[in-house]
Amino acid sequence: AQEAVIRAALSNAGLEPDMITYVETHGTGTSLGDPIEVQALGTVLARNRQTPLLLGAVKTNIGHLEASAGIAGLIKATLAVRQGVVPPNLHLQERNPFIPWDKFPALTLPQTMTALSDVNGRFRAGVSSFGFSGTNVHMIVASPPAPETAPPASQRPLHLVTLSAKDT
Hints:
The protein contains four helices and seven strands, in the order H-E-H-E-H-H-E-E-E-E-E. The chain has helices at 2-13, 33-46, 59-62, 69-83, and strands at 22-24, 53-56, 85-86, 107-108, 114-115, 124-130, 136-142. The strands form two sheets. A five-stranded mixed sheet has the order 4-2-1-6-7, sandwiched between helices. The protein has a two-stranded antiparallel ribbon with strand order 3-5.
């Protein structure tokens, strides 16, 4: 189901998997949930990938926030895209041994502030979140396109200011 949600998000956005350079994971921190999530991300976004796919989890920075964990992940991903950097996974001591990391060598867990790679001048990140009801969500956030440069406004040496009043 997670693979299908990620594929649908890519399709809806009109993007290819290698256009996503960072994913803010739900990051349950469990031996069951994390391997399922990372394998889905790896299968859809990291298979035959030539560039790193950074994985983050806000829970390693501030803990689990229960119902607000998803919005915290969205905020973190939005700020990462805006700034062009991903903060480190602060409290990560060791990678989950139940995840087949060797199967997806492009998956990277940043341990220091890490610059995002841009694709066609834009940063893009995926955000995965799961609800209590079993709802899986994957959304994509992106930096805005570069503004088109407008021709410079014409310069006028003099200006006429017209004022009018009913009485003094």
